[in-house]
């Protein structure tokens, strides 16, 4: 069978089954189980309405429980067992083994660096662009061009930036922009940027900053628009210059939005894996936790330590989780 | 704002210039890849892509015609012709600035000079590639003499890379199959979570049942669970219940991972719909199923569209989920992101192939992005800012 036809068939079956569930389960409830006619019509309608929320919710709850809630618990359990000892309980052995590995500490150190640099830079650039494009006529075009990297996959972005960082032997023409500029200005030999320990982390971070700035910009520019104009007018009348208006009037008013943007990008950073995987694969001291975990799981097949590092990632996210849930509880009241 | 006294400052120009600079900075890398995908391998390695519009200096290795074509002119044996004859791809407009006959001295002779070859013959090369090889004795050997030239080649763009990547059918470069696989993953993995999340969001927004607030908190809590956490337990589960690695598994995984955000966004939107409409419909005897499909779904179109774009971009661009739940040893179900990773490994230096493959994979998301940007922005704002 041609792969395209096979693809279409699988798509039709997959989507069809999902739609069919909702349609037929509700039909069954209304027509067969509790029909809204006959002598028990009133009672039946009430009963049907008691069951229906769960009919609506069932697939979602089922998927959430199986695909997100269960894995958290199962990973926690796996991190306390040893795969080689037939899954016997070994307490904190995996964690102990993990903290003795230099690679783990390298991943931790790099992750902390990522967690600090990427959200800070993306938010700062996003705020800068949002403010600069706020009042110019072609601002919307500029914004969508800066927003565009959001649509590009991490892998695509990795290829794009590998071309930027490309290095050719000294003396030949450089086809990577960075080396072309570097050789032009400094006259030194071209560098293999991704293999320079410590600094190469920043070259990887640039890729994520490039992607995330658009996201920060969109949200912050909406927040900037939402600032009441009279506060700004008052400042102008009082003779404030544009920089004072921006830092003393605008930024304090959108503080909470800045926090939201910062946390969202932090989550992206913690989960990100593709960029490191595609560009250096953790070599030359660029390992991060997510990639370290992937290494343990699918290259060394060490589920114990792999799960332990996954739990470390989970612990790092927990403050944000608690904060989110508390916000929602407050709002529901 | 423009008319407020004092707002039109001398900074206006600085603002315009800085925005231009920022946009250029953000666009530059992508444009580089795009331009590179239309250049030949020689051009890419010969000059930076930003010089693509100008003639490039290259050192080429060319050959004269075979000794079979020699003619006798008086006492001399002569071969005449044009060095670029065999190289139709290089065009006849290339200009030679220097040539050489040994690989140690690539540009030892200026055009028009006569260079002595090792076997006693002499060669003269002209700017346009015309050459004259003459010898007192008969020229022997099976192939023509090797000539190295420094040539200025005019800019040239080609679709060959796309042909190679999409239609060549070779196992390593075959993006066409990966493209179809990616679509097969993406379409159901976009539609299924939307359908499931829309029903759940409606229930959480408008239906009354015990434990509703707790369920909302449950969903919000799951928003932050890193999906790496789910890989091992779920892979074991999939293998255990016999789904194994395949489309069903990857759809389910994307559905599970996409649901928290979908439910959260859609519930926020549905709660903001006017209460009257729903209550009126209830009074008229509509069941919740009818209210949902006839009233809420059409009204929720903007929110549905924005989530659909998110989920589409996310599943199209995904590497990790596909790597764990879909791609098996046969490689039949590989997706484009994975194909590119493999190309990075096997053809890391072949920028024409890499650039083209990457561009094939980002073309669809870019098209969707520019066409539906309005909804994407609206969705972002609905989800993040209250």
From TrEMBL, chain A:
Residue ranges of the TM segments: 6-24, 54-73, 112-133, 145-164, 202-224, 258-280, 300-323
Start and end residues of each ABC transmembrane type-1 domain: 108-324
Topology in membrane: Multi-pass membrane protein
Main location: membrane
A Pfam family it matches: BPD_transp_1
Keywords from the named record: Cell membrane, Membrane, Transmembrane, Transmembrane helix, Transport
Subcellular location: Cell membrane
Domain of life: Bacteria
InterPro entries noted in UniProt: MetI-like (IPR000515), MetI-like_sf (IPR035906), UgpAE/MalFG_permease (IPR050809)
Family: Belongs to the binding-protein-dependent transport system permease family.
PANTHER family recorded: BLL4140 PROTEIN, DIACETYLCHITOBIOSE UPTAKE SYSTEM PERMEASE PROTEIN DASB
Protein name: Sugar ABC transporter permease
Lineage, top ranks: Bacteria, Pseudomonadati, Pseudomonadota, Alphaproteobacteria, Rhodobacterales
TrEMBL record, chain B:
Residue ranges of the TM segments: 13-35, 185-207, 213-235, 247-266, 295-313, 353-372
Key word tRNA processing present: no
SUPFAM superfamilies noted in UniProt: MetI-like
Gene3D superfamilies assigned to the protein according to its UniProt record, in alphabetical order: MetI-like
Keyword Lipid metabolism: no
Domain of life: Bacteria
Pfam families per the UniProt record, alphabetical: BPD_transp_1
Domain ABC transmembrane type-1 stretches: 179-372
UniProt topology in membrane: Multi-pass membrane protein
Location(s), subcellular: Cell membrane
Keywords (A to Z) from UniProt: Cell membrane, Membrane, Transmembrane, Transmembrane helix, Transport
Family: Belongs to the binding-protein-dependent transport system permease family.
Protein name: Carbohydrate ABC transporter permease
Originating species: Tropicibacter oceani
